[in-house]
Protein 1
Amino acid sequence: MSMPFYVSPEQQMKDKADYARKGIARGRSVVVLQYDDGILFVADNPSRALHKISEIYDRIAFAAVGKYNEFENLRLGGVRYADINGYQYDRRDVTARGLANVYAQSLGTIFTETNKPYEVELVVAEVGEDAASDQIYRLTFDGSVADEHGYVAMGGQADAVAQALKDRFREGMGLAEALLAGVRSLEAQDADRRLEATSLEVAVLDRNREHRLFRRLPAARIESLLREADGGSAGASGEGASGGGSENGAS
């Protein structure tokens, strides 16, 4: 009779965390950064159908990396949560903080109580009246929440992207400059890489709009903004292959 195989709870958690990190690192990166009129989301994503960036509510958006079916499941849950709370109470009662708490509980429960953790990382962002009141929350696969300021990079080679963002980011950037900073930071994963407008998914939460503040930017608009920021040089949206990343610093 063979001995039952024992794995300590610590080892089990470590194995699950390693598994989730590897899955997230295989994907393509997303960056979220503040600009003068709101919050900008830029994803390395050639798909027109499978979105990594989505509206959740009037002033709130969601960005994700990792397994599409898993984060899509979370997105739908977030939309339901926002709709029900906005309907039962008041639209102003639906906040990024409340949503981040709901996601943290879901991800924490899935991580501890199931054999396979979700291979996802999320950002929930809410645009305020001014930059000081913007809220950006980053959630990792185990339900940890971090309150971020300025910018966030996740998925793929997140460390390389975050370092490039750190070098380029400054407070109060205009939309064109912020977009260029985001795109160049995504390209930092591979020295030979140039991301074309058609391989980017870009959206903003624009505090100057009325009611629903989320809007997607079409490829033509992305291209003209990149040209504007790059002083009209041809390199703004040159030819390039798209690849994945290798490792990710998840907290």
Protein 2
Amino acid sequence: MLCHMIVKWRAVREAARGPVVTHALIAGCAVVFLLGPASGLNPAYGTGDELLSAGTAYFRRWGVVPDELFTGTPRAWLTPLTALFVHGSWLHLLGNMLFLHVFGAMAEERMGRPAFLGFYLCTGYLAMAAYAAANAGSPQTLVGASGAISAVLGAFLFLLPRARVTSLFPFLFFLPLRFPAWIVLLFWFALQWVAAQRAGSGPGVAYLAHLVGFSLGFLYAWARYRGTTRVRRPATATEGDSQP
């Protein structure tokens, strides 16, 4: 009885502290960006052409370069992990962190902190590696947390399909509308699929990493939690807005 009370007390205390891992990941990405050349705020990288040159070298050092990933060097094999914390612009950072804030908190609460952190890093790594394998001859650098965040979306679809999500649709003049998560997330996945079919091999958005991450996240949640009771409260709401 005493052990049960201690465990319950610890669970309540952890819940009261909020989504610590999600907030830590957001903070980590923000700090890395602010200290890096892409923010334009660190005078150590200079200005003008010097800043552009420093940015290129920075992304090649910490990002995934497909034609270098499978060379077998330890540094290359670490880049799918380091690239998760590197972003190429303010818009890139803010867009990814918005999605992580909206969907990560509830997924973390459902999975638990250590499991959520391991899930995030592993699926993000695999999404990056899968994109690199599919574009093995490309010299274009891949950075950003979108592969891992896509995995969070996939897991969210299985774990909390009826949670309410406020979405902004550009073709509806950004009118905020609330839909069940399964509608928003399947619509988002369909958009990524269509965009991936039209994407070229040059620089741009790594839609394939999004698709792989989403699929990995959903499959993991299905395999790990299919025997447990999923949260189905339709009134449950996420903590922010998402833009599919």
Protein 3
Amino acid sequence: MTDTLQDLIASAAALIVGLAAGWAVHSAFARRKRAREQRFFGLPDGSECVMVTHRDSTSAHWSIPRHDALALLGLASVVENCGAHAEVAPHDTGLQGFGARTEFCVGDPTAHRRLAAHMANLLPGVAVHAGDDSGTDRGMFTIAGTHYRPDPGAVEHVLLARLTAGDDSRPVFLAAGQRPVTHRAAVRHLVRNRARLARKYGAQGSFCVLLKVVNSQAYGPDLVEVVADVTKPATTSVGPRAAAKAAAKDD
């Protein structure tokens, strides 16, 4: 066997070993990344989750608003990547309490019963205004005495939250916005920033973030700004004195 042939064999063997080592490292990294996502979303292999939405009020038939439907599609890809299975359920269907399986609750809290119930129980520091007879200030959020009014097509807000009832319970994710386009924006923010959110709040931590969607009339759900982390005020009950002060400020 010539020296040249030996060198070729050695080079080929080194290349094969290098490729195998690289594949093993890549596979290990992919498995760890998937495991982190499964912990963050509470979606182990073969688990079940539910996506809860409400129907389009402008339609005579039961249908989901377009932006809400696209938001659910974005969540469906996450569920599939985690090896879990999803069920889509209407907001007014009797569902079990939360914690047994991961839940994604997407919609307008003034019309979405399940979402409104979650916010009342888990985000007692957030007031959502139904608006007056003319619809003025419908969907306005009040958090820690500050009002966040919607300006349709220009500035709209949405709350993105991950909440749990206890250490062993599965999380409920809320995307509660002032218009359907904001729900889609919140889900996009969640999916795109899931690794950063997990690092900041922990794989099993709770959080509530207020987002602002800017100029949705021109940019749709693409231009999103983080207004504030409102976890503490949103999850803290508002006392009678603070509630009265906020109401007086609103007047």
Protein 4
Amino acid sequence: MAAVTGASPAPDAPPRPGLRERKKIRTREAIRSAAYALIEQQGYDSTTVEQIAERAEVSPSTVFRYFPTKEDIVVTDEYDEYDEPLLAELAARPAGEPWTDSVRYVIREAVRLALTERPETTRLRARLMLEVPAVRARMRETLTGTGRTLAETVAGRTGLDPRSLEVRVHVMSLIGGLLEATLYWAEHGHREDYADLADRAIDVIEHGPPAGKS
């Protein structure tokens, strides 16, 4: 086939993880899978790290090496690997696109990935955030770090200082709103469309709550 004049070379494919990294990924997944299965069978409080380790065929110290607390097994999962690409996609949205439209697009993509690839796990995590205070508290702590990363993306799009009060309030309002949408989804038995609930949360952040009855 003849070369196309002026065409840009195709980007290199990402390098395949080495043997050591692949082993780490398999171990993390084995621990997560064991924890989710046990929690489904006997509940969160009745599931111990020792039980998770036995089912995953690793030692309890290995579990703690990958996940500092039992809550971390629930609040950090395979979707965390999508955080960086999704934030990069947010930063790459058209410059003239309204910021809230860009956020909606990326949030819908994140929800689509979660519900398409691991729907049962996504529902279980939402239910545990609703029912287990320790899981909910740990998720809020984790989202603080996500907020700092998102603030950098907002700053890149708006030219504002990521450390400014305005950016921090906007970002944490967004994250808090999405967390509340997740809890609402679980409260109502996952019957409503998760992406639509995220849209409604963004609407409230942008416009405030709807006017009450006079």
